[in-house]
Amino acid sequence: MSHFQLAAASGGGGNILGLVGPFVLMFVVFYFLLIRPQQKKTKARNGMLKSLKKGDKVVTIGGLHGTIMEISDDIVVLRVNDVTRLTFDRGSISHSVVEVEDKD
């Protein structure tokens, strides 16, 4: 038997773990640093979109501020000023604006 055959016969199992181990560790790090936080953000955004109701003040992805006048499963009608009403997809809402009331 040659030197390479002896090395393959004696240490084959340890080499596979040594090769696969860093890839498994890298996947675990990517999961906790990238995938899991993104899933939490997506879940929070979907919850916010489901909780929208008529009268909420929102900002669209494009930065337009408005008040919800009508809302359905996939369409939102925003009042931008006293006259202008614009129709958007529900998914184009970036976030809801919470106003702080003065107690004076």
TrEMBL record:
Keywords per UniProt: Cell membrane, Membrane, Protein transport, Translocation, Transmembrane, Transmembrane helix, Transport
KW Transmembrane helix (keyword) present: yes
Membrane-spanning parts: 16-35
Cross-referenced SMART domains: YajC (SM01323)
Topology class, membrane: Single-pass membrane protein
Pfam families with a match to the protein in the record: YajC
Places the protein is found: Cell membrane
Stated family: Belongs to the YajC family.
Name listed for the protein in its UniProt record: Preprotein translocase subunit YajC
Species name: Paenibacillus phytohabitans
UniProt lineage: Bacteria, Bacillati, Bacillota, Bacilli, Bacillales
Gene: yajC
